[in-house]
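Internal tracking record. Fields below are filled automatically when a chain is submitted to the structure queue. Please do not edit lines marked as system-generated. If the sequence contains nonstandard residues, flag them in the REMARKS field before resubmitting.
Queue: standard
Priority: normal
Entity type: single polypeptide chain
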Amino acid sequence: MEYVTAEQLAGFGKYKAGLLQPGRRNPAAAGQPSSLDGGYWLPQLLETLGVKSREALKHLQYEDYLKLECKVRYSWETRALQKLLELTDNKETFEDLQKQRLEMTKQRQEAAKLALEELQKMHKSHSHNKDDIRQKEETLWQAMEIPKEYWAPPPEKSLVHVLESIQKHLEQQELSVGRGENVPDTEVLRRALEGLALQGIYRTSSLADVLAKRDQVSPEQKNEHLVFMEDQMKSLWSAEIKSLLEKHRAVKDWEMLESDLRAFISGRLEDTCDDLKKNSIIKDMEDTFQRTEPSSQSQPKSDGSESRANQVIANQDFLHLLTRLGLESHYPRKMGTEDFHIIYETSLHDSQPSKDNELPFYFLQKLLTVDYQVRYLTCKDESDPGLAPVPKITPQEHEPLDSFDDFFTDLEEEAPERATRESHVHPMDLQMAIFHCADDFMRQYISTKLAFCQFALPLLVPNPCNSQIEFPIWSLSQIKKSWKGAVKSGEEVRINSYKNKLIYQAETPIVSFIRIGSSPSSSKSQILNALLSKQKHDTFFHRHCKGSTKNCLLMKGVVEISWYCPRGSDDDSFDCCVAFCNLHGDARDHEEQLQFLQEISAVNVALVAESDQSDKKGMEILRDLWQSQKPLVCLFTEKENVSAGRSSQNIRIGIKNRNEAELMGELTKTIRDLLEGSNTLFSLDACLDKARKHGFLVDEDTDACVTAKEKAQALVKLLKKEKLSEIKSQLLPLQGKLWSTWCKKDKELARLEEKRNKSIEHHRSQIESEKSAIRRKQLEKAFPLNQLMKSVLSFLQSQPADTKKYFLQWMKVFMDDLTSDRLDELKRQYHQLWSQILAIKKRNEKNNLKPLLLPKLDALSNEINDSSIGLEHILREVGQIYEALESMNSKEICFVKLPEIAADLMVSGYPIELMDGDASYVPLRWVGAIFDRLIVKLGDKRVFVLSVLGIQSTGKSTLLNAMFGLQFNVSAGRCTRGAFMQLIKVDEKLQQDLGFDYMLVVDTEGLRAIEMANKQSLNHDNELATFVIGIGNMTLINIFGENPSEMQDVLQIAVQAFLRMKQVNLSPSCLFVHQNVGEITAKEQNMEGQRRLQEKLDEMTVTAAQQEFCDVSCFSDVIRFDVNTHIHYFAHLWEGNPPMAPPNPTYSQNVQELKSKILQAAKKESQGSVLRLSSLKVRISDLWNALLNENFIFSFKNSVEIAAYKKLETAFSQWTSQLRSHILDLQMKLDNKIRNGDLQKVITEHLENLVQGTSDAIRREMEKYFTEDTDCEILIQWKGSTELKLKELKESLLLETRKKCENLIELKKNQCKLDERKSEYESELLKRSRELALSLKGQSLSERELRDNFISLWTTWIAEVSSAAPPPEQVDIDVEIEDVLLEHFQEPNLPARIRTFPKHGAFSVDLKKHVTKKKGWLPSWTTNFDHAEVSNIERITDNIIECVKANIDKKEREKRDYSQSFIHEILNEVRKGVNSVPSDANYRFNKDYSIDLSLHLCRMAAERFKAMHTAFKKANDPTIYLESKREDFFKCFQISCQGATSITTFAVFLCDKIVPALREAVYERTALAIARDIKGKFPDFNGSRASLEVCILRYLAEEENFENFMQYLKRPRDFLQRYIETRVETYCLDGNRRLEKFLDDSLTHCYECIQSAVFTSTRIVKDRKDRNDKISLWLDEFCSALGEVLRLPRTELKGIEHQEITDIEFLNNAMTEALAPLKDHLREEFASANMRSFERQPHTILAEQFAGCWEQCPFCRAVCTNTMPNHDGDHQLVFHRPQGLTGIKWYKTDDLVIDICSSLVASDCFLVIGEETQYPYKKYRDAGPPYNTWKITPDPSMQVYWKWFVCHFRSELEKCYNGKFQGKGEIPASWHNIKKQEALDQLKEF
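SYSTEM-GENERATED OUTPUT FOLLOWS
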């Protein structure tokens, strides 16, 4: 069938568009913004109507539209939806429009159908001409709305099929339009496939035949048609179709496209729409972060805010106070918590303020440690006026003393000004000044701490600069109070109800205290204190408090509030929680405050002075109070006894001269009785409206706070729609069962088990697949994001920092409201049930009740867990969303915003979860991403980690909060779950001193928690302890009380964790904090406690050491521990009985001392242990990955150290390269000098002096590296060994250089006799040539005549010289070889074997003949020798052959004569190779191997020895030698004849001698230059061996050459050589012709040296008058100057040294002219040079620098990648690999092993050695050498490189090793999905 034309394609594309879009839209709709197109509505469309395609929008019924409209939130969305659908709100209008559309479509269909029928008839009848048919076609196209420009006559043959297809489509369209329904995606696709067939992508229009005939069209044609279809129809395709085509476009796989489309039609969309899901998720995330939440600024709505800028002008006294306190820059409300939550220098030392401007800082510091003595803070500077000093009386004073009368007179006389206290800053002025300067969050912090100290809090605060009154309810919103209220039931019974509430929400009666007039004798605040506290704690500051002054500037008009909280005992003053308000100052002056208090109070108490009763205003106030419905208590300050009065509501009490206890008893009873009769209860929250009505400034009314509160309320409203225990599962689904299952699978991955006939890698792959499936399920549950998460993320990402803080606080408040009541009830039920079970246990009852109760207890525990929901759970969900997104391997910017949110919170001082408390797991990707974002925000800062560990409910969080002002949750029970981290900045002035920039504090859940009982509690606690101790630089071990059992628990866990750290070379420190130990002042008691603790620690250490198989006997062997300084005893937290007890000041003092001790210890901490954020992230990962394995010690991989060591290896490689390069350069110079005869002896001292400069420079560089590198403290452990290795390398290189020089000198000496004979012959011939020249001197002869004269005598001279020479010694090399072999092996049949041994061919090992199994060893695999053994045998053999060849090469280069000792050297190499078989190998080489290999090598060597001998004879036979020098003699003869005119000939002769020497020098120098250049420029060669290994692996993958891979696997050392050689050749011989440039540079350098030598020689010789033989002297100087540059022996120039040349200047010019063509000639020669021209190859020089370690893994044969030979520690490498790559098969099968060492060592498999010996792979080191010399750690990564290789070259590997990847060696399915790019990407990580 032929194709339709392109024009028809376009037409059918338009027709298809009509088919898929029966309801065409107004073109104007296309102009809508992209955010409101069809894609915007898809999520709602899916959720509401259950359809997924944009096409459905075009077929909506009006009812469908109404359903969709219900989901619309904004009116502008409604309008956009209507515009998109071209409809109005009127149903009739919509339906009419829809009917019109359908009618028009039907009409077009009818016309098209009629035209089609007629066209078909015309085609069948064959009676119509072409014009008629063409006309009817046009009618059809018009009915189908195809533009005229696309009309074209189709080929006759194809029209039938085209018409059939059109008919089918018309029928389908008619059916669809008739139904008027939504078009499903699968139907759209089915039609699209038909369209593809119709368009000519396939040769059929039948859907069934599409796939069957897919290969009949070329890919190019398919692609062309598909592109055309996309142009015409793309807007009509669903997102799934677009995704599939996008996927196809990336891989260009038509089969895959067809398979995906088929799967889509059949409903198996899951396999084909990963990309769609991914795009949908990305779109959802982008939409979330692009949503614009209403922005807010932290400005109050009140009009009072407008005048804030000018407030400071109003009150100069206040301004003066601020200036005095140094707070002027913070006013108004500019001081934030970020200014205070910093570790300052004062934290190191406990000190007191000496100046007024230091008071605020010290106030806040003391408040931080909840020291209530902060209230009495004053300056200690003696220069400040203080108490009136007592007069000092000295003996010298003789003035009369005061008389008794004088003493009591003049009392009215005032003391001098200095004796008053007026100049002190009043403590409450200090507090309120700070309050006025603090922002809302700082105020909240201050109020919370003041409440903890049991101090009264500001409720109404007049602004000191205007009349505005503030109602700072926000500052009170985080204060929690707990109490046990008594409720009477009947006459006698009291029921205690425990409550723990945010106090501002608690509905309590309010008792207000006011003062009318002045009362010098009585203090209202003092009376209140006595009411509230039996301990006489000063809740309200009063006139008799320390530091109080006569005048207080900022307290007048302030209303303070405090609460009495009963503890449920009989001596409680009140049965319920009661709020007490105190209006400071005279009530007459503060009407607004008074009126507000009257409205909210249940009881009013007025302090009235008699002297003020006549005051009209005062009496009006009292009358109002008396007339109100609220009870009034009047306290008369100047009355002792007052009658009670007739009203029970209004009470009078006289207080003058009253017994305080009696008075307090009466007052307490009075108020209690009045409260019982009152129903007036108010919460502060309920007072807000009243405060606003009074015009008070409410801090909650700032825009930011309002916005945050509204958002929090809206979200909590969402939460309330769900049942409390189902909120997590419904709205936070990712952290429940799915996450728990993922964690379980992840742990399984670290503890692999062998599954019957499946390999470990198969099991691993299965687990990884299950983990991926869980992540996919998480994504399905997470996206589209539910309203809760979408709103939280959008809000936290879009809002300013302050708004986010408000939001988080409100969320905490509202979520606490949501859960607290139900949790309290559940906990009460749990406690009752648990008590019941304990009672049964105690009675030892044997009944069936207990088994019934335990499941109920578990159910309650689960419900408590499910019902506990806080902000940490929402942030945990964010973390899980991120981890799930990360599994998509997509680096979308919007994904990074998730950890960015957490990092922002962390920087702002919010604690972030480090270990999930429910799953007890660390989400490494999430935590790592947070650290990455912190690094972006703060830089890679140094961080000191302080962690805390202890039994639950021992005050760990309280301690940290008091020490650093943190926000860790504090409550009874297990409030902290998992581990949380919080960041504290160190003051810049202190950073240098301490050595770090931030402190990271890690708070942990309590050990031995009852919630963890029966849930592997011990293992969980050990993991937690090991983790937090491992990441901490210091750990606080918190012990509470004297309970021996609890102490033993925590010590045992901690000691084991510290022991583990010691074994992995981590050295954290610890401090023991022993809290609540009673009286701690007695030194003897302390010593006794220390002794007991020391004994316990040592005991626990011995126990733990036995478990960890470690030999230590006391705790101080494990870590640095001093019992005298590392144990801190803490007082009781409370001074009395809570809830009314204030914190113990001694506790606060202990906190400060501990803080100081921690910082001082941190100051001494080794800088290497204080990690940067990036390294800390890695340390966390290392520790957690090791903990996942059962054997922590074995599994721990210190990546920070590994990274530091890699850097050291790179540096070491560079240092050794410099040293090698210098010594190679030196070697070249020494060689030249020896060959030139200028050096006869080399001593080590001389060589050391020559390299001293370079050596010292390297040493300085190394010293700088070890002292200044960022990881210097880690690197220091290797400094000694590195210095030693460098020293050893230097000595080794110098020794090698000395030996080479000595060998060369010895060779020179051996040549000496021959050289002397040659010299004699030369001298004789020179003498005769000079005599002949003298006889011809004066004659004018041409060169031809000179040559004839010379030749006539030359033959005679040679004959005479030759006859005098001794005859050459005859050598039969074959006979000598046979004699040596017979003597060496002494085998009787050896001569016959020698004669029959093949003369040619390569040597191959015959395993049966050459190798013998040791006794006691049986075959372990399918053949006698496994592949690893065969590989090793071949490697040893090849190594022997290569060594022998290299030795002969060397002798040939040295031009040595054959010697019988050469044969012995060959036999020695064979013996060394045979002995190199490992002692633990189960085979050995036999004698046949040695004989056959020796015969092969000697046969090969014999031919080369003969060639060497021949060449030597030729070089040293007098006749041959002299004949080769004939032209030189003629030149000398010619020069002698020419006399003084011979300078030019002399220069030419000398240049001819220079040429070969210059060529050799250029190549030698170039080889060094190339090696240096490549090492400096190529990443492959400027790092360590490990990095070179990675580059080789990348090269192999890119080349995809199986033979190269096998060479690398079998002979890694040889391959490395070849790889370097290939890289060098490619670099030098590419299109840039770098080799030519290198040679030219070297030539230029050497040429300049020769020119310099010419000039220097001329300058020295030209003025010498003492010598006549100037030419000889000139040659001496010339050769001396070039001694280190060229091999130009002076003896070679004897023939021209006696020439009669006197014009040395002319000689200089002649040489210059002669040298120029020499340079040009060599440059032309070098233009065609290649790498074979080098005697010493550049790649050999490079390879020597990567000698390193070549030990191979005993399992997979991968090579150790340590750059340093004979390195310290164990062998390690980057990538282990499947063992099948070396041919290993499963026992008695052909199944190749796919297991990887790094997986096996984490499994429960066994290593089998020999017949019966087995070791668990986890303890492979127990098998001894070579296993125990390797460190193979479990690797959680995918190791994709070799997995890709196995899949890619499966058939080649099976053929190579005659095995199969089947059975237990079956390749996991997931391996086949690995792409080469993934393998290359993994290499980039290294």
